[in-house]
Amino acid sequence: MTNEPAPSPVLTVRGISKSYPGTTALRGIDLEVRPGEVIALLGENGAGKSTLSGIIAGAIQPSTGTMTWQGRPYSPATPRDAITRGIGMIHQEMRLLPDLTVAENVAVGRWPTRAGFLSGKTMLRQAQEQLRKVGFTGRMNQPVRELSVAGQQQVEIAKALMLDAALLILDEPTAALGETETSALLECIRSLRAQGVSFVYVSHRLAEIAQIADRVVVLRDGEKVAEHDSGGIAPDMLVREMVGRSVDRLFPEFDPPRDEVVLSVEGISDRAGRFEDISLTVRAGEVFGIAGIVGAGRTELVRSIASLEPLRCGEIRIDGVPLPSNDPIAAKAVGVALIPEDRKRQGVILSDTIEDNIALPNLAAITRYGFVTPSGVTRFARKAAARFGIKGDIGDPVATLSGGNQQKVVLSKWLSSDPKVIILDEPTRGIDVGARASIYEIISELAQQGKAIIVVSSDLEEVLGLAHRIMVLAQGRNQGIMEAAEATADRVMAYATQ
């Protein structure tokens, strides 16, 4: 019996390089994508994945090299050129129109008309069809700005599916999704793959790669360093190829927490009804994990604990002292710090420098005799940047940093005030393996210092690897709190879907 020849590639990339003043982002990349194939593109932040994806999608022009699409020369000048040829890209950073509804965002660029007028019924039906594929359960007429980050990501994916593309480039599509939504997306990809749609799949979640990838391409420092004909490659090998070294243990060891209760939450309910009757305690040196599917109320809960949202009832105490509701200044004053889930919109000012971002919430510590001096800001920022391992000159705009370094800027600006309670909402979303290990070490150090830490994550492996105890939310209610020794992925998911 003879093996059938492999189908001709729909996309070929030959010798693609991209240089910017003072740096080379890509060097001589070759790549082939065949019909109905999922290629995983791996690498640390800054390895060149986004640059290569942008070139294929027409958003970036290469310095050298050629491409073909379906056997013909292909050199898109704009993303519109790529879309008209059947190539779409779903960006990690959402590009939605916040004041339009969910259905309208999905339909943008593909407005269904009847007799020259927009057909609202057709638009709703088409939007529901695509959103169902990715597990979206929200309202079609809801403005996108009211959705969670995960909900917005689902809309972004559904919008791309409306293109009827032959090749979809997915840049960290599940970074904001929980296990249930991720499973729905992977099933959608399998269905489209069976119909001949090809995918370039960029992700830092190696477990997903094993489930969905037909081939794996690894980039490091702008070069292709490895290619595998299967997604089932040992994670340790992929990590070594991505970072150029062995990451022996992703999750550090944690000492048992102390007896002292730092944070006490008693029977709190959200004024908007997004969570009900939540009670928990976090001790000094404890990492308390919060898990649950998208829409369970995790982010709303921790924002309320940080006094950013009003409560209907209940009480929050720090070291036994009641914390006022909806008063973030008071919360900061008593030592509560929240690292938000959306670092670009809520965590940093992208156009400002590293040092200005770090200094902004710490002006009281920098002020001398009523004045803030540039030299004082610089000294403070340099010390914080060194402590948290931020790469780059402190005078650089935060927008120029990788995702991992941007997250370290967020950590440094809030942790430099030495808070007692640290809440991390999706602390490693969209961050590569090397940067994740670094942030986990920071969390371990904070626990050793006796901080009370809450970690909210859609990545079950992360919650299980970090937390001493895990609370599972479902539909805004506490379904149970488990010790780390009794917590498993199956058990957490069973509670989360009750």
From TrEMBL:
Annotated keywords: ATP-binding, Cell membrane, Membrane, Nucleotide-binding, Repeat, Sugar transport, Translocase, Transport
Domain ABC transporter positions: 11-246, 257-496
InterPro entries (alphabetical): AAA+_ATPase, ABC_carbohydrate_import_ATPase, ABC_transporter-like_ATP-bd, ABC_transporter-like_CS, P-loop_NTPase
Pfam families for the chain: ABC_tran
Molecular function, one GO term: ATP binding
PANTHER family: CARBOHYDRATE TRANSPORT ATP-BINDING PROTEIN MG119-RELATED, D-ALLOSE IMPORT ATP-BINDING PROTEIN ALSA-RELATED
Name this polypeptide is given: Sugar ABC transporter ATP-binding protein
Source organism per UniProt: Streptosporangium amethystogenes subsp. fukuiense
